[in-house]
Amino acid sequence: MSYLRTFAPWIVYAVIPSQYWQWSALIAVVISVASIAQQRRAGRGWDALIIDLGSAVFFAAVTVLAFADPDTALHAYMPAISSGVLALIAGISLLIRVPFTLPIAKQTTPQELWDQPLFIRTAYVLTSVWTAAFVIGCVALTALAHGSSGLRTTVQVLAFVIPVVFTIRYVAHIQGGARTALAD
Fold it and tell me: Are 141 and 158 in contact (CB under 8 A)?
């Protein structure tokens, strides 16, 4: 559920029809800011809010653009730009050595495991897969910017679903291996 909360602004922005992109961007920035405020009140550090902060900045900029120039040529490329921005945010989280999946995982993992090399390595693997999915989504969506909206929607959905499925399966694999190692 933490991933759903993290990507809620992006999901809302993607599901609202593109002719209402000004409103979807505004709703997304409000969701982002509200999520940041709620998480800060819950005691989460800024490092745990990398995607949330990037989302708020991105959607604030998109909102300004969408209301200032609703017919901008960039509108057709917004799905690609969105994936590109997510790839950039995720990539930066790797570069600064705080993979965005790490703080999300800490929300459901006992604190005594947080410093374990396998736990940290898993976060790097997961963040790398998410980053790759966003990069591939960005490239595909750029190529499809003026193509079928159904195909663009499919690519957008796959850019999220594939890393979600990978995350679920990879975490289960790692946990199963850890249980086996403890049993031996």
Answer: no
Residues 141 and 79 sit within 8 Å (Cβ to Cβ): yes
150, two tokens: 């159904």
Q: How many CB atoms are located within 10 Å of the residue 161 CB?
A: 12
* Residue 119: per-residue pLDDT: 94
Cα 23 to Cα 2: distance, rounded to the nearest angstrom:
25
Answer for the pair 134, 155: CB distance below 8 angstroms, yes or no.
no
Helices (H), the chain: 2-15, 21-41, 50-68, 78-95, 101-106, 117-143, 149-183
Q: What percent of the chain has pLDDT over 70?
A: 96
- Say what the pTM is: 0.88
Angle at which helices 78-95 and 2-15 pack, to 10 degrees?
160
- Asked if pLDDT for residue 4 goes beyond 80, the answer is no
Q: Decide if pLDDT at 104 tops 90.
A: no
The pLDDT tens digits for 64-87 are 999 999 999 999 999 999 999 999
Whole-angstrom distance, CA of residue 75 vs CA of residue 24: 13
